[in-house]
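Q: What would this chain look like folded?
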Amino acid sequence: MPHWPAPYGIDAGPMHQILIDEELRRNGVRRPENPIGIGWAAPTIALAGTEEQKARYLDRIFTGEEFWCQMFSETEAGSDLANLGTRAVRDGDEYVVNGSKIWTSGGHKAQFGILIARTDPDHPKHKGISYFICPTDLPGLTMTPIIDATTAHSFNQVFFDDVRIPAENLVGEEGDGWRLARVTLANERVSLSSAGSLWGRGPSADDLLDLVRKAGGVADPVERQRLAGLFCEAEVLRLNRLRTLTAQIAGREPGAEASIQKAMADEHGQHVMEMAKAVAGTAGMLVGSGPAGRLDMASPRARPTTV
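A: My prediction, written as structure tokens:
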């Protein structure tokens, strides 16, 4: 990837990377099917991993040989990620992990996960957390599917029962996990908040406006005003994303702008989907029908993004 350091990429800066992303999107190139590996795990490993970790994992992430998932969220922690209860206890050359993770996207397809666990319970909650590379085929690790109301299987709950992770899979220093998790989450938020209206993927406001133009415009002045509002929202998100990149260029750690981007983008995606239904009229009630089919298919998935 362009933003990965050499020899894995061209060491592109954030601004260079966003220009590449925009050109790829403009030419219809879809985002990678291994977004957690390419967009979140790899940059963190490239930043803090050992040379052995970089040599072992980055190439295979890039080629798609190995699929990755994220093991951060916990049922008892709620939205307070630092309140995690999964423990990792050092035992010789291994860490023994016990606990569980939830909402693990793509875990049933993944060979590896990025895991944060508490290695020192005596420290305040934001400290004493460490960051690991966790193979999903380790004894004691159980991946349980979460089937949603549409019978789709995207998420999983992961159970750790005396799972032994090699100490060489620790990324960075012991106790440095919260800082590295913030790096990963900042990459996630910006990635999920790009032009696509469904967690950074799928159709965008530009796609909707292009559809309206091809259909000859919208006669209703109220709907025209709503479309103008969507354009403004999309532009605010684009500029805020550039602000995030500017901070990275200046060497500053991720700030509130990354969280703002994620929160705004989720609501914006819902606005785009609602407007797509309105523009499509009665055809908008039939999922995947007509010229707005791509927007229609994304509509049911946009609603829960703010939950």
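Helices lie at 14-26, 35-48, 51-63, 177-192, 205-214, 221-249, 256-280, 293-302.
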